[in-house]
Amino acid sequence: MNQWMKRSKAVLSTLILVTLAACSGGNDQPSEDDIKNAVAFNLPSGLEVADVEILVSENAGSQVEPLIRNRSNITLEFTDDFVTPVAQYDDKVVLKKLYEKGQELKGTLISSARLKGESWSVSTDRFDITRVQGNALSQYVAGNYAFEDTDEAAAFKQAYEDRIAQEAEEARAALAAAEQAKAERIAAFRKLLVGTWTATGPMMRNGGVYTGRDRKSTAGLEMTFPEGEEATGVVPMTLYVLDNPVDSLPVKAGFTVSPDGKSVKINARSNTHSKLNFYMNEIWTMGEDGMLVTGSGRDRWTIQMEKDGAATAAKKATVEKITAYDAALQELATKHRAGMAPARLRDMRLSENTFSYVILEARRTESARVFGTKEYDGDSNIALTAIHAGVLDEGEAGVVKVTYRRYNQRPYIQGSTANGVTSERFTDYGRYTIELVEKLK
Q1: Which residues on neighbouring strands pair with residue 68, listed in sequence order?
Q2: 397 alpha-carbon distance from chain centroid
Q3: Which of 26, 232, 312, 418 has the most CB atoms around it within 10 Å of its CB?
């Protein structure tokens, strides 16, 4: 049984070898057409393989798995003119001819082939031939190309340059028109700005009225825009106490109108106003509505401005009134050679049994106190003492005579309520009296 099986296997092996030999009789290596088809598969349009001549063949594999390597002469032929673009003008192209239709290229090909079923799969190992540049002319749309150094190519270039010049001119015109429109917008807004803008109310911070050190004084602003159409410039600005605009501080400020002609930015710089405890060191923005704004979020400042209106007139009138008042005070002080009144009687530093003239305004202040009746202690506030003594009513101003006397005894001088002021008692050797010299009318 085993011997019969061994003999059967030997016979089967012999039959297989004979069959393989018979199949490979005319297909023991790739044909020239196999090589031609393999090369043609990778050629660009307009170029084809005209001829293949196998020069040398060898089996680099085995009889079971052959690997045939061939060296062949190969001829390529152009079936279309080959061109390359040398200039592009929009959708028009200028071409240079590289190869004529029918022109041939010759070279050498080293290829490898493996048997795949009953056909050969050929691959290129090395291809020694002139490298083909460009593309087939048929790939370009007729009417959209011209050859170099022709009138048609020159026409393409001229049309392109004319279009570029026209577009450049249109762009310049559009830019000039845009700049003109911008200048007109700025000029219109500048015309609106010209004049004096004055605060109609106090400066606000985060929706609340901002107050200074005394928790009463509020801030106002005034700025005057000069005539002109320029987008930038200097705008004189003043920071002042709203109810006393004479108490003011100059602010250095420059302005820039926005390109859309709808707002102006003001870059302000100043020292600190002592009473307001505030300084300008921000960029403010104001639109046509006159609302001046800076900051954002939790630190937003606003102040409503009005141009050449009631606010400006009222501020001017107040300044004139205060200025006239101050001038009258100065004149009255000069007339009586009176100095400015200090806070307390003691601060006048009078010697025993002497007197002096001072000018004062009878205004109440917080924490002010008065000690005594008709005769007063040196710690008494001089303005409040004048009101208590009936020398001046609250809000009035004038020159008063303050006399200091020293006694040998120090009885208690009782306090009292007079003219809306309540005084306290005191005891001291030195006592002050106050009399009216002349009241400011």
Answers
A1: 59, 113
A2: 55
A3: 312
At the top level of CATH, the class of 337-439 is mainly beta
Give the per-residue pLDDT at 4.
32
pLDDT of residue 368: 95
Q: Are 27 and 44 in contact (CB under 8 A)?
A: no
Taking the C-alpha atoms of residue 96 and residue 85, their distance in angstroms, rounded to an integer, is: 6
Q: What is the pLDDT of residues 266-302, one digit of tens each?
A: 999 999 999 999 999 999 999 999 999 999 888 999 9
Kindly report the average pLDDT of the chain as a whole number: 92
The pLDDT assigned to 182 comes to 94
Q: Name all contacts of 232-240 with Cβ < 8 Å and 24+ positions apart.
A: 232/256, 232/257, 235/266, 237/266, 237/268, 237/280, 239/270, 239/273, 239/276, 239/278, 239/280
Please state the domain extents for the chain: 30-141, 150-310, 337-439
Cα dist from 319 to 118, 241, 248, 328, whole Å: 115, 11, 11, 14
Tens of pLDDT, residue by residue over 353-372, are 999 999 999 998 888 999 99
In this structure, whether the domain defined by 150-310 belongs to CATH 2.40.128.120 is answered with yes
Helix (H, G, I), strand (E, B) or coil at 328: helix
Report whether pLDDT(16) > 70.
no
Q: What angle do CA 82, 85, 89 make, to 5 degrees?
A: 145
pLDDT recorded at residue 365: 85
Using an 8 Å Cβ cutoff, are 141 and 148 in contact? no
Backbone angles phi, psi at 414, to 5 degrees: -75, 150
Which one, of 328, 345, 338, lies nearest residue 386 by Cα?
A: 345
